[in-house]
Amino acid sequence: MSSAASSKVVISGTGLWTPEHSITNEELVTAYNGWAEKYNQDHFKQIEDGSLKAKPFSTAEFIENASGIKQRYVYVKDGILDINRMRPNIPERPDDALSDQAEIALHAARKAIAAACKTASDIDAVIVSCAYTQRAYPAIAIEVQDALGIEGFGFDMLAACSAATFALHRGFEMVAAGTARCVLLINPELTSPQVNYCDRDSHFIFGDVATAAIVERRDTCTAPHSYDILGVKAQTRFSSNVRSNFGYVTYANDADPFGADKLFHQNGRRVFKDVCPLAENHILSHIESLGFTTADIKRWWLHQANINMNMWIRNRLLGEEASLEKVPIVLDRYANTASAGSLIAFHLYHEDLVSGDPGLICSFGAGYSIGSLVIRKR
Ligand code: CO8
Question: Which structural domain, as residue segments, surrounds residue 325?
């Protein structure tokens, strides 16, 4: 489904919050291998009689070659590298304290509001959109709305890898329809509590971050850098190849609430093979529907899950000789940040574009879901 060109709605500012803590591949691998060695020793007998499989070891070289990731940022480092814990230690906060996710959302939101030269009174709606929210209700968006003193309304939405682009689509539609003058969209991607740090195949994939964006009417925009939204396009296709069974029904079915299937798990190879061609076709049909060719698009802010996926898409759409400046990569530093990756890339690599330059923001991954926006610098 795509919506036709409109230059009445703009992205007028973005914000990025980067956690102060980071973990290198080497640190992560040392912890995982220490845990695996202990597991194998503790289960020596079962491994020998074949009733259990020995845990394999991880390597930093594999991680960098297979994914392009060198390090990741985390909200709380304490606990993740402790071989007796292997998960972050994030203490529960009382109901009258700001929640963790609202806190990191606010860091990014304030930066986006400042970049767009807006104040709370200009904003009519707040959408918090990410892969997980830390509770079902009250919405994190309403907590953020309250902390910022914004009138109007807020709601949360979940769309895994495409949470940020799908939220931008909703902001675009609300402003185009006149139901809001200006919308604040936030992606507090607190992924580390859902990472299985005891799974060699996926322990390295994710990092924490928060991104935010302001979408508003073109005629109210006073920001130094702003982008007309020329069109939006979304596509989903059901797949269980990237899945988390975490949810409130676990209480009713007596399953282990901490079981491996309740954390992020995937068939990574399958995802790669399915999603790359889907994304290629989606992007081509979107830009062509707006009268552009791939040569016209000056910058490609792609989802950041895996360097080899982005290079595959670059090679298919632009050719192997295309400059990496056109297709910025942030996952070496940030790792996969669920929906926030394309927004981090946009935030860090847009100011040098000149008036009239078109660009593409595109997410692809779990769901499967693909979401794109074709934008043009004003
Ligand atoms: N160290 C050493 N060896 C390893 C390791 C490791 N850590 N892990 C695997 N190996 C081994 C494997 O066992 C395998 O060995 P063998 O050949 O003997 O069987 C070999 O290395 C190759 O393994 P793979 O085939 O799995 O390796 P790949 O080259 O396919 O790379 C990747 C694995 C990196 C996972 C790759 O397949 C990939 O990135 N695929 C795409 C994944 C993707 O995009 N997924 C979507 C992510 S979902 C998302 O972005 C948001 C979801 C919601 C947020 C969740 C928050 C927690």
Answer: 227-377
